[in-house]
C-alpha cells in the first residue's frame, strides 16, 4: 500500500509488530500499526526472530502508515485473487511440517487445518511445469524458502484454499472504502456470502 501511495517500495519491520503488538496475531499487528501511527522499515527495526520489549524509539521512525484495515472470513481463492490484484493481503495459514521445511519450488497444497501462522500474499503466477501458484512472503527471514518467499499451489479443491490461505484475509486501506460484498465466483454464483468488516482509528 505504501508503494501504491508513494511509488517507493520499502521492506517494513516484522519485528516491530512482533514486539509491540498487544496480541501476537494479525488483528493485533494492524492495531499496533494504527496505534503507533505507522511502521518503521526492517533496517530501522530489524528482525531477530523472538518477541522482545517494544523499542519505542525505533518504532517512532515511521516509514509507512495506513488509515485502517478490513477483514474477510471464510472466503475463497477467487475472492483472494481479486484482493491481491489491488495489493498485498495478510492471510492466516496452517503451518504444516511441509510448509515449515519448504526450500523452493511450488509447494503442493494440503487441506487446511488450524490457522496457526500468518503470511503476506503478494502475488500469483503460473509455472509451465508445476502449474498455478500463490506468491507469499513469510516472516522467518531470507534463509527460509526462496529468499523469504514461497510459491504455493493455487486452484485447489479445498474449502478455504491451500493451507487455509483464504479462510482469514486482512488488508490495509489508505482511505475508508465503501461497503463491499464478497461473492463466490468459483461456481459462477453471485450470492452474497459475507461483507468485509472494516476498522479504523
TrEMBL record:
Segments forming a coiled coil: none
Record's keyword terms, sorted: Disulfide bond
TM regions (residue ranges): none
Gene Ontology molecular functions: cysteine-type peptidase activity
Gene Ontology terms: biological process: proteolysis
Top-level taxonomic group: Eukaryota
UniProt region (Disordered), positions on chain: 179-201
InterPro entries given in the database record: Papain-like_cys_pep_sf, Pept_his_AS, Peptidase_C1A, Peptidase_C1A_C, Peptidase_C1A_papain-like
Stored Pfam families: Peptidase_C1
Amino acid composition bias (Basic residues), ranges on this chain: 190-201
Domain named Peptidase C1A papain C-terminal: residues: 1-173
SUPFAM superfamilies recorded: Cysteine proteinases
PROSITE patterns: THIOL_PROTEASE_HIS
Family from the record: Belongs to the peptidase C1 family.
Protein known as: Vignain-like
GN (gene name): LOC109713792
Amino acid at each position: 500500500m505504501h508503494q501504491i501511495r508513494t511509488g517507493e517500495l520499502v521492506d517494513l519491520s516484522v519485528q516491530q509488530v512482533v514486539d509491540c503488538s498487544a496480541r501476537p496475531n494479525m488483528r493485533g499487528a494492524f492495531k499496533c500499526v494504527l496505534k503507533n501511527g505507522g511502521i518503521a522499515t526492517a533496517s530501522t527495526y530489524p528482525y531477530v526472530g523472538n518477541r522482545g520489549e517494544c523499542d519505542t524509539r525505533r518504532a517512532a521512525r515511521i516509514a509507512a502508515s495506513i488509515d485502517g484495515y478490513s477483514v474477510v472470513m471464510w472466503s475463497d481463492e477467487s475472492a483472494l485473487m481479486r484482493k491481491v490484484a489491488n495489493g498485498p493481503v495478510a492471510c492466516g495459514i496452517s503451518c504444516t511440517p511441509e510448509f515449515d521445511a519448504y526450500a523452493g519450488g511450488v509447494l503442493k497444497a494440503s487441506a487446511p487445518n488450524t490457522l496457526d501462522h500468518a503470511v503476506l500474499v503478494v502475488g500469483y503466477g503460473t509455472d509451465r511445469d508445476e502449474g498455478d501458484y500463490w506468491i507469499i512472503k513469510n516472516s522467518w527471514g531470507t534463509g527460509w524458502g526462496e529468499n523469504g518467499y514461497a510459491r504455493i499451489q493455487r486452484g485447489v479443491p479445498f474449502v478455504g484454499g491451500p493451507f487455509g490461505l483464504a479462510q482469514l484475509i486482512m488488508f490495509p486501506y489508505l482511505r475508508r472504502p465503501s461497503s463491499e460484498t464478497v461473492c463466490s465466483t468459483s461456481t459462477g454464483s453471485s450470492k452474497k456470502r459475507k461483507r468485509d468488516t472494516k476498522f479504523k482509528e
